Task: inverse folding
């Protein structure tokens, strides 16, 4: 790492009502995401997971209550909060590298430097030498890696991820989860990771928040797939599943 | 490669056959309800074409018509893309301009000749105005549709990177709408030709349309056909130019196997996400 990453931000919701005007999806939600943690948010389809992320990103204003970053209300999108989309959000007319360079170009980073940084991030997500390809020439899993590189290249202080691996097959998905953990290590960014997959949440999250209630559970460490069979994790998994089925 | 040669042979054959039938019908003065007695033969027209090519007047007419169409079309492209984008992106622009545009749009550009004569000090400007109006609407309408149909996630992605209004316009809206805009430009250049020729016939001083009408009034029928062939060739060249420009600018569009032109690299079948693949309008070949 050549640059020092600023530490992660604290994201808080207090009595927040979220959704589109006239159609609230989450009512009276409270959450405290502490700096530098990975908070996995689980919930059934349609429970407002994406709404929560879009609100945190600043794309959707809260209908009521408080949504804040380090105590300051979130009112508009900001580059320091990167959003990784479930759908393929790469610009199809830009090459893979030009996509990763885009947030740097917006920040005014000089051409040579942004090229070097984009290449280095592409290498970190395992896409060395793929920079000149167009997005439709690479696989769905590779496109999500590019999205990850694009989000992280801008050195965000918070990374909001909306089921980024939802459309991938099980094997690619497991690989991506490991890659995410490896890549995030050392960035210090606060991560909110939304998923409907309980195992994914337990593997990735330092804590797991359950929607729509907003209840938060701690996940025992170390983060290993083998740990899925130990009694504490099995009990936690059952608890999460029960709470999800109870609310639906 | 065989496919390309075969296709070239078929195209040539079709042209030669059309000319052959024309020559036969006219040289034998066929008179079967349709009358070909007065019709010039292919050889008459070819002879007249040869004579014209050697005259300065012909090249003067050609330059005049081309200048008019290029000026009118360029203005229409700039105005059409600007207005179409504004109307699609801004409620105020849509409310302000929408009604006026919708009322003017059904009026055929050539019916604006009286308006042009009243408004502009010279015929030249009037003809450019008519050409521009003709091409403006297809460009404006297709830009408006293309901008409205953009995938919202592209804009949201750039917003969360801290991009502002102009960045979104330059990095998302214009490149994303380009395939649709190019469809409008393709239609626009065709309509422009119709209108520039008609306007020249009505009020022109020089130009291919003016010359064609002059030849008709002095009963020089081969000359009329030379004019028509010239218009056809120029129209074909300009729309091919627009088409080629379009292909160059939209190389990023995912193309299906077997579509023309073939992709430079052979690759296995791949899934193309529909969200990332706007309808490739420009792939439609206007001149097969």
Result:
């Amino acid at each position: 790492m050549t640059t020092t990453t600023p530490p992660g931000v604290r994201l808080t919701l207090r009595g927040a009502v979220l959704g589109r005007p006239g159609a609230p999806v989450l009512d009276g939600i409270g959450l405290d995401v502490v700096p530098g943690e990975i908070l996995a948010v689980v919930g059934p389809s349609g429970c407002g997971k994406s709404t929560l992320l879009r609100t945190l990103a600043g794309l959707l204003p809260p209908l009521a209550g408080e949504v804040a970053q380090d105590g300051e209300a979130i009112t508009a999108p900001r580059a320091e909060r990167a959003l990784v989309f479930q759908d393929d959000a790469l610009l199809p007319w830009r090459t893979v590298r030009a996509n990763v360079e885009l947030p740097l170009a917006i920040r005014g980073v000089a051409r040579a430097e942004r090229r070097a940084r984009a290449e280095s991030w592409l290498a970190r997500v395992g896409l060395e030498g793929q920079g000149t390809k167009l997005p439709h020439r690479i696989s769905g899993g590779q496109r999500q890696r590019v999205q990850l590189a694009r989000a992280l290249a801008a050195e965000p202080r918070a990374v909001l991820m909306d089921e980024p691996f939802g459309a991938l097959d099980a094997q690619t998905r497991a690989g991506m989860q490991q890659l995410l953990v490896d890549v995030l290590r050392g960035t210090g960014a606060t991560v909110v990771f939304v998923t409907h997959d309980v195992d994914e949440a337990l593997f990735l999250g330092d804590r797991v928040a359950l929607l729509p209630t907003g209840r938060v559970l701690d996940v025992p460490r170390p983060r290993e797939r083998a740990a899925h069979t130990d009694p504490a994790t099995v009990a936690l998994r059952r608890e999460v599943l029960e709470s999800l089925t109870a609310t639906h | 490669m065989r496919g390309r040669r075969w296709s070239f042979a078929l195209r040539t054959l079709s042209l030669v056959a059309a000319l052959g039938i024309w020559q036969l019908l006219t040289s034998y003065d066929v008179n079967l309800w349709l009358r070909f007695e007065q019709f010039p033969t292919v050889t008459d027209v070819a002879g007249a074409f040869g004579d014209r090519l050697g005259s300065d007047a012909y090249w003067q007419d050609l330059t005049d018509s081309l200048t008019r169409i290029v000026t009118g079309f360029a203005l229409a492209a700039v105005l059409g893309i600007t207005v179409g984008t504004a109307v699609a992106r801004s409620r105020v622009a849509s409310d302000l301009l929408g009604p006026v545009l919708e009322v003017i749009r059904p009026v055929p550009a050539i019916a604006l000749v009286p308006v042009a004569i009243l408004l502009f000090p010279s015929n030249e400007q009037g003809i450019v105005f008519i050409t521009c109006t003709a091409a403006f609407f297809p460009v404006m309408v297709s830009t408006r549709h293309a901008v409205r149909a953009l995938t919202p996630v592209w804009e949201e992605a750039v917003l969360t990177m801290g991009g502002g209004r102009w960045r979104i316009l330059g990095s998302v809206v214009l490149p994303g709408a380009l395939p649709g805009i190019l469809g409008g430009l393709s239609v626009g250049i065709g309509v422009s030709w119709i209108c520039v020729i008609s306007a020249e016939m009505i009020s022109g001083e020089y130009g291919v349309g003016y010359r064609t009408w002059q030849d008709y009034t002095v009963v020089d029928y081969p000359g009329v056909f030379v004019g028509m062939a010239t218009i056809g060739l120029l129209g074909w060249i300009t729309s091919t130019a627009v088409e080629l420009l379009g292909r160059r600018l939209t190389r990023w569009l995912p193309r299906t196997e077997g579509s023309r032109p073939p992709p430079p690299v052979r690759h296995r079948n791949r899934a193309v996400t529909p969200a990332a693949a706007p309808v490739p309008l420009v792939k439609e070949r206007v001149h097969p």
